[in-house]
Write a structure and sequence with these properties.
The protein is mainly α and 56 residues long. It has three helices and no strands. The radius of gyration is 14 Å and the shape is flat.
Length: 56
């Protein structure tokens, strides 16, 4: 269970860091902005990882 909790924390980390930099608490955000940041970040990471595999 600790592994899954660590995985969730890692997955949500980009959005949490951006909210912290903007001085917005997670409770005030409601998860919308954090979800947007996480989708953009992990989507970019996914493209960077899969693009060389598709072209190579």
């Amino acid at each position: 269970m600790a592994f899954l909790k660590g995985l969730v924390t890692l997955f949500l980390l980009p959005g949490t860091l951006v909210l912290g930099a903007m001085n917005i608490s997670v409770e005030n955000d409601g998860g919308v902005f954090r979800s947007l940041i996480n989708m953009i970040f992990w989507g970019f990471v996914g493209v960077i990882i899969t693009l060389p595999l598709m072209l190579g």
